[in-house]
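Weekly modeling sync, notes
Attendees: S.R. (lead), two postdocs, one rotation student

Agenda item 3: backlog of single-chain predictions. S.R. asked that every request posted to the team notebook include the full sequence so nobody has to chase files. The rotation student volunteered to paste the first one in as an example of the format we agreed on. Action items at the bottom.

Example entry:
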Amino acid sequence: MKNKNILIGILLSSCLTIASSCSNDLDLSPISSYNAGSFYKTQADFKLAVVGMYDKFQDLHYYSYLPFCMEGRSDNVTTDTGYDAGTFSKFIDDATTGTTAALWENCYQLVDRANAILDKIDAATFTTEDYRKYYKGEAYFMRGWAYFQLGFLYGGVPLIDKQMSVAEIKTLVRSTQDETFAQAAKDLTQATTLLPAVWPSPATELGKATKYAAEGIQARMYLFQKKYSAAKPLLADIISSGKYTMATNYGDCFVDAYDNSPEHILQVQYKSGNVDEGNILPVVSVPEGIVSPMFPQGGGSPFMYVSSDLYDSYETGDIRRDWTIQKGYTQKGNVLDVVTKFFIKFGHGTIPATKDDYEVNLPVLRYTDVKLMYAEVLNEEAYSANGDAFTILNDVRKRAGLTALTATQLPNQAAFRTAIFKERRFEFAGEYLRWFDIVRSGNAMTIMNAFLSRTENGTTLYKMKGDYQTIFAIPQYELDINKDTKVMWQNPGYN
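Predicted structure, as returned to the notebook:
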């Protein structure tokens, strides 16, 4: 099953060429100092430019970016956590918090790389016209994904849909969140029409976005907006394609031997071998001084403390808990810690020669997520006792080693909705979806302040101060750059 895709190979073999001749295209500045540069002219050039987008996509999933923001903010992680993940968990982040500023910058760098492709690709020389269409589809996909993230993380943002000068960008008035999502939807819809269902060379093009990846990400955004009727046909198309199946064993979703399997619609790709393309997340998720056969070289200091609230909430017999979380560990000097909990979800596969060089990919969109989203849509359309939504929910529970739920236990739409959200927490713990689900539930204040009042979080030390904290502060450097204009302003509550 294991076969790393062409993206990593091209990136490794071409990095010197990119650095020396194409740096203006593939290493552009963030929004505050946008750079037009020069662009590629041939199909081979655009092939490299596309790899540059995936490289930035990989950057955005670095442990201290999306993981810190999306998992650290949630009730899956305690306030004992350090670094910016702890800042988010305590709800004390502001406009000067480094991680949110870095996320903003990297998202706009991805937008810029996509715009660089879209602006010039129609005039380029291609030997295979299908690939002109496919590369455009990938650019629309990446830009749409970036605007989805920016809209969710910051609310409305400036919308840049072509290469612009610094002066032009500084005239762009910040859009609303709905307008930002509309841009993302437009891009993802376009990506769906251009991307292939299967790439022509599956053995060498694994990991590239397909039309189904675009549909799934767009459906995820529509669920956030509660646009269930818009999400349904996208999810149904993925399911009816017959190209994906849930992994038989839960653990197979997170072991490198099963990367790019039919469980995975889109993954961030990694390759070990000390080529600077390995995955560092498995080792920085565990304590630095751990003594363990699974982590023979120790862990990393930024690890997030998993909450007792999450660990204790799993049902008895749920195999996902012990695959995802370890409670207690032996420290150097044979000191036993029986309390600390941490994520081990991605540490079960091949142990690399260098501890920060894991091969395992990170899931962005799993088929199980598509199925659970579809069950949610069915329930929101009309509750059906023991209907198709129940079948999907119980298929996920069966794989986890749990008994089926019936209409007697979930007698109405509200009860089923609660069950779906609960199941998602356990299924996707450590996969950076919990904060997204909490926010879209509409109950962030209730959930998080109940969690923060627990003894493990200091009872009264921290709290979510208002719904304004469902989005992050606009980075201070952006405000400073635009202080003489009226195009950028701080999100309410962070002033």
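Discussion: group reviewed the output briefly. Residues 9-37 have pLDDT under 50 and may be disordered.
Action items: rotation student to repeat for the remaining queue; S.R. to check formatting next week.
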